[in-house]
UniProtKB/TrEMBL annotation:
<comment type="similarity">
    <text>Belongs to the G-protein coupled receptor 1 family.</text>
</comment>
<keyword id="KW-0297">G-protein coupled receptor</keyword>
<feature type="domain" description="G-protein coupled receptors family 1 profile">
    <location>
        <begin position="39"/>
        <end position="285"/>
    </location>
</feature>
<keyword id="KW-0675">Receptor</keyword>
<dbReference type="GO" id="GO:0005886">
    <property type="term" value="C:plasma membrane"/>
</dbReference>
<keyword id="KW-0812">Transmembrane</keyword>
<keyword id="KW-0716">Sensory transduction</keyword>
<feature type="transmembrane region" description="Helical">
    <location>
        <begin position="192"/>
        <end position="223"/>
    </location>
</feature>
<feature type="transmembrane region" description="Helical">
    <location>
        <begin position="235"/>
        <end position="257"/>
    </location>
</feature>
<keyword id="KW-0807">Transducer</keyword>
<keyword id="KW-0552">Olfaction</keyword>
<keyword id="KW-0472">Membrane</keyword>
<dbReference type="InterPro" id="IPR000725">
    <property type="entry name" value="Olfact_rcpt"/>
</dbReference>
<dbReference type="GO" id="GO:0004930">
    <property type="term" value="F:G protein-coupled receptor activity"/>
</dbReference>
<dbReference type="InterPro" id="IPR050427">
    <property type="entry name" value="Olfactory_Receptors"/>
</dbReference>
<feature type="transmembrane region" description="Helical">
    <location>
        <begin position="89"/>
        <end position="118"/>
    </location>
</feature>
<feature type="transmembrane region" description="Helical">
    <location>
        <begin position="145"/>
        <end position="166"/>
    </location>
</feature>
């Protein structure tokens, strides 16, 4: 405990040390974060306001948007603010809080994308049983299980890191607090903790990715016997899901399914699953979905009428 108290704060090295590039990055990432908030809030509002978007798929989609807001907010605001300061400081408590929130929403998204793939599998391969298997009560209990599982995962990650002794130095070669960069700073043998991280984060990502891949392979095989119109509609929906899965899971597996060694490329790779994927989700799920686009147009017209009346 005495050794751990030697470090009361950490210093991020950030994405870059170039001052001019940091100013450009500030503008770019600010726009990206505003796009994340705007797009995901719009999806939540659209699903909640439309009586036609009441299927389990849209119920899960609205939760995905909520998770994306929380997930990106765990890292993006601090990253954007740090572009404007020379010394990027975060307190020890703030670092542990960021670690917990980041993994909580991150694993929730992993579980949620897996459930969404299962939802598409039932809808396409067993359409007659869809309303029974994916009922509202099942969806609600599934979400509770997701939150509970994510909380347990995040608590394990945070408590293991919290009890490591940090004697100094306190510079984190990253732009947010994550397990691997923190393990490098611990003044003790971190082999067991690193192994738990691989099992707890890396294997969760890998197993979920394998399940997702199997689900979509079965769906694609099933679609061969469908009509061309039904095949195109299902492929459009599944195609958007597969795009999200690749952009999110591949970087996660690269980062977490390996020992506690870190590479200079890790920070750039992390941008994909912390910023890019939450920003692309609204675009991917709306631009390829006519029902969502029609509901958004209706919501827009309703808001315009309300503004005129006001």
């Amino acid at each position: 405990m005495a050794n751990r108290n030697n470090v009361s704060e950490f210093i991020f090295l950030g994405l870059t040390t170039d001052q001019d590039l940091q100013k450009a990055c500030f503008a770019i990432f600010l726009v990206l974060y505003v796009a994340i908030l705007t797009g995901n809030v719009l999806i939540i509002a659209t699903v909640k306001s439309s009586s036609r978007l009441n299927s389990p798929m849209y119920f899960l989609l609205s939760y995905l948007s909520f998770v994306d807001i929380g997930y990106s907010s765990a890292t993006a605001p601090k990253l954007i603010a740090d572009f404007l300061v020379e010394k990027k400081i975060i307190s020890f408590a703030g670092c542990m809080t960021q670690l917990f929130v980041f993994h909580f929403f991150g694993v929730t998204e992993i579980f949620l994308l897996t459930v969404m793939a299962y939802d598409r599998y039932i809808a396409i391969c067993k359409p007659l049983h869809y309303t029974t298997i994916m009922s509202k009560s099942v969806c609600k209990w599934t979400m509770r299980a997701l939150w509970l599982g994510a909380f347990a995962h995040s608590m394990v990650q945070t408590l293991l890191t919290l009890h490591l002794p940090f004697c100094g130095p306190n510079e984190i070669d990253h732009y947010f607090c994550d397990v691997h960069p923190l393990l490098k700073l611990a003044c003790t043998d971190t082999y067991i903790v690193a192994y738990v991280v691989i099992v707890n984060s890396g294997m969760v990502s890998l197993v979920s990715f394998v399940l997702l891949t199997i689900s979509y392979i079965i769906i694609l095989v099933t679609l061969r016997s469908r009509s061309s119109e039904g095949r195109l509609k299902a492929l459009s929906t599944c195609g958007s899901h597969i795009t999200v899965v690749i952009l999110f899971f591949v970087p996660c597996i690269f980062i977490y399914l390996r020992p506690s060694t870190t590479f200079s490329e890790d920070k750039g790779v992390a941008v994909f699953y912390t910023i890019i994927t939450p920003m692309l989700n609204p675009l991917i799920y709306t631009l390829r979905n006519e029902e969502v686009k029609n509901a958004m147009r209706k919501l827009w017209r309703h808001c315009n009428k309300g503004t005129v009346l006001f």
